[in-house]
Amino acid sequence: MCGIIGYIGEKETYPILIEGLKRLEYRGYDSAGVVTVSNGKLQLFKQKGKIKDLEASLKNKNIKGHIGLGHTRWATHGVPNKVNAHPHTDCEEKIIVVHNGIIENYEALKYSLKREGHIFKSQTDTEVIPHLIEKYYDGNLELAVRLAVRQLKGAYALGIISKREPDKIIACRLNSPLVIGIGHNENFLASDIPAILGHTKKVMYLNDLEMAVLTKNSVRIMNMEGKEIKRNITTILWDASEVGKGKYPHFMLKEIHEQPKVAHRLISQLVDTKKATINFEHLKGFNEFLSKMKEIAIVACGTAYHAGFVGKYILEEFTRIPVSVEMSSEFRYKSPRVGKETLVIAVSQSGETADTLASIREAKRRGARVLTICNVMGSTMTRESEWVIYTHAGPEIGVASTKAYTTQLIVLYLLMIYLARRKGKMTKATALYLLEELSRVPKAFEEILKHEAHVQKIAKKYSKSTCFLFLARHMNYPSALEGALKLKEVSYIHGEGYPAGEMKHGHIALIDKYLPVVCIATNSIIYDKMVSNIQEIKSREGIIIVIASEDNKEIKEHADEVIYVPKIDEIFSPLLVAIPLQLLAYHVAAYKGCDIDQPRNLAKSVTVE
């Protein structure tokens, strides 16, 4: 949510800020602003709407300066408008702040500051921060910032500059991500890596309650008492070209089509198919813990939760270990039954999801051990977990997750095989068979994508529908949930996912001749049960769209539309059905003219509660 970009160096700052903000658009926003300082002069510009609107308003401006900040705001306190947009300043417009997060005690702080004579312009919680720094400023910006942030309760990622000390950017964080980019005679500040990837791959991450001071030639990190902290530099492996759309009209479509490549890359890195082995040797101490482990708890949000839900099915079936899967937002506020014999698996694309991060902290407090499945190296969740398995999907820019989901599934399949072998619940022959089947998945993805035009045709036919129902059974029930979520996210059409066996318990009342029902009926032990459900829908004149295995010809007798996927062992069917579900959602949204990469009200990473 929201986006921060900062630059200090020898180059003109404004183009770097605008480029960085564009790279952060996927985080969701409703206004944007930039500020630079040049020769003691402040140049501050803000605009409601898109970054292109901000650019248009500055078309004839000569914006100079070698230090600056940019921000995209997603409104929380105060409506989206020019005044409430960031950056915000103090009374004298000498201290400038951009902020991601929520200041929970801002009303009390604002009341106190106003009584002291401070004048506020906006309705935001953020504006108290520059006024607090102004209050404590006595010639030392670093000290004033430390004193100010001690007053703040809630979450913040801050970028701060001052006309009085125009040779530095100060950054602070608490429960909201910040990354520092290291360059040659220049340094960067950002809320996420894609904003700076075109300039540097050398980064340092701030931890909670830390402050960084950036000049063009140095970066110092310290705690809130001013004690300096040494921090290693991390090299990002992503390529800058991965954050562009290439030949595709939207990031979402590009990332759907990247799935064969990223699936192959991930499997190749982690699997030796000939030896039926999985390379988790980097998980130090993991095998020792497995001998004591008696239960697994999976925590995640949104699409990652659906991946974790599939994980529950496969882990319980093959390892016989009890597995719970819970939405992080619920897990964190209950009294979870986890302890020293529990493995908590956190699933997150960004590694910054606020509820999941809070969940693993609670789990650790109760003695559980934490393994995180994540895409972003160096993210907060990966730093706070004992073990990490990276999905290596590359940057995912589209708000609706696609390649992150399928790579999360692949990791969960590999983890299942690994645990089943370690626990003596799976023979080497079975492991070899499953790994060989999994190695077929990238090619299967390619085959499905070859028939995109067929899915597009179906999407066009039903793009004016006001509701879709998604039905499945067993381990594809989470696939139905994910299909409904994808459709809702990008097309704004109401979609619901249900277990097909629950139809008679209420959902069948929704069926009529106007309702498209997407039925996942790939080859499986419960296939005949799904066919019975499909016949029930047909008898009530529902529109039936079936996702079926490629050798199933008789299903055409029961369906209005059929989307085929390659044959594969049923355990891996959630991987294959994900692709047509993603394509269906994408093309429905495209025919409706929706803003696919930046759906309304949504952000890529939910970093505040």
Q: Your description of this structure?
A:
34% of the residues lie in helices and 23% in strands. By secondary structure, the chain is α/β, with parallel strands linked by helices. It has 3 domains: 234 residues, Glutamine Phosphoribosylpyrophosphate, subunit 1, domain 1 (4-Layer Sandwich); 197 residues, Rossmann fold (3-Layer(aba) Sandwich); 154 residues, Glucose-6-phosphate isomerase like protein, domain 1 (Rossmann fold). The strands form 5 sheets. The protein has an 8-stranded antiparallel β-sheet with strand order 3-2-4-1-10-9-11-15, covered by helices on one side. A 7-stranded antiparallel β-sheet has the order 5-6-7-8-12-13-14. The longest helix has 20 residues. The chain is globular, with a radius of gyration of 25 Å. The mean pLDDT is 92.
Tags for this model:
alpha/beta; Glutamine Phosphoribosylpyrophosphate, subunit 1, domain 1; Rossmann fold; 3 domains; 27 strands; globular
Q: Indicate how many domains the architecture comprises.
A: 3
On the 0 to 100 scale, the average pLDDT is 92
- Classify the fold: give the CATH topology of the largest domain: Glutamine Phosphoribosylpyrophosphate, subunit 1, domain 1
Low confidence ranges: none
The CATH superfamily of the largest domain is Aminohydrolase, N-terminal nucleophile (Ntn) domain
CATH architecture label of the largest domain: 4-Layer Sandwich
Distance between the termini: 11 Å
Q: Write down how many β-strands occur, each being a DSSP E stretch of 2 or more residues.
A: 27
CATH C-level class of the largest domain? Alpha Beta
Oligomer state equals single chain
